[in-house]
Amino acid sequence: SQTIHQWPATLVQPVGSPLSLECTVEGTSNPNLYWYRQAAGRGLQLLFYSVGIGQISSEVPQNLSASRPQDRQFILSSKKLLLSDSGFYLCAFTGNGNQPQHFGDGTRLSIL
Amino acid sequence: SQQGEEDPQALSIQEGENATMNCSYKTSINNLQWYRQNSGRGLVHLILIRSNEREKHSGRLRVTLDTSKKSSSLLITASRAADTASYFCATQGSGNTGKLIFGQGTTLQVKP
Q1: CA spacing 20 to 30 A to A61: which of A9, A89, B64, B66?
Q2: SS3 breakdown of chain A: % helix, strand, coil, rounded to 5?
Q3: In a mutagenesis test of the A interface, which of B53, B61, B99 is the best target, namely the one with the most A β-carbons within 10 Å?
Q4: How many helices (H) and strands (E) does chain B have?
Q5: Residues 58 to 97 of B: which have CB under 8 A from any A CB?
């Protein structure tokens, strides 16, 4: 079966520190991968998506970057975190571009 | 950018009552999807309705789509306390990226 793993579940980081959030998918090949951010009480904002290894599309200019070093691995990074980077980050995948997305359990990121 | 507008933002009902949530969008779509999110968790896909469909059922869920009005509704019949969650609509356009544009969501509270 297809599964998605996202970690850590919660993270508290100081301003200016680096960030690395990891997401891995099992049970499918060449998935489309997505990173979203969700502000409290709000909908999801698409940050990055990838349709293949090394292929990253950015939806909004920001302090973050994404990479896809392996087919089923998607990483969200920052060199220096800002207070505004706080939020709930969700990774998702779909096996086919026109199918529903499957979401990880999210990472709650707090910047101090 | 957020395409969907959901109405109402919050809804509180008694167990056994029906809950209706509405979603409007702005651009042409390939399909529209509804997701559920329990507090602090990832999203779970509920139902997908294609642009050439007008109504779809899944258990106690009924979704309608009116492409001329660019709107959709989600009806949950005979609600249960376990239905308490946030509900989001999301639109998917043409192409194979599978990108979703989410609405702001409706927070549903079902009182036992």
Answers
A1: A9
A2: 5, 55, 40
A3: B99
A4: 0, 11
A5: 88, 90, 92, 95-97
Binned at pLDDT 50, 70 and 90, residue B4 comes out as low
Written as one letter, the residue type at B50 is: R
pLDDT number for residue B1 = 39
Provide the pLDDT confidence category of residue B3 given band limits of 50, 70 and 90. Answer: low
Q: What is the distance between the alpha carbons of residues A42 and B71, in angstroms, rounded to a whole number? A: 20
Taking an 8 Å cut-off on Cβ atoms, the answer to whether B42 and A106 are in contact is yes
A67 vs A61, residue with greater confidence: A67
Q: B106-111 and B10-14 as β-strands: parallel, antiparallel, unpaired?
A: parallel
pLDDT tops 60 at residue B29: yes
Contacts of A58 (CB under 8 A, 6+ apart): A47, A48, A66
The per-residue pLDDT for B94 is 84
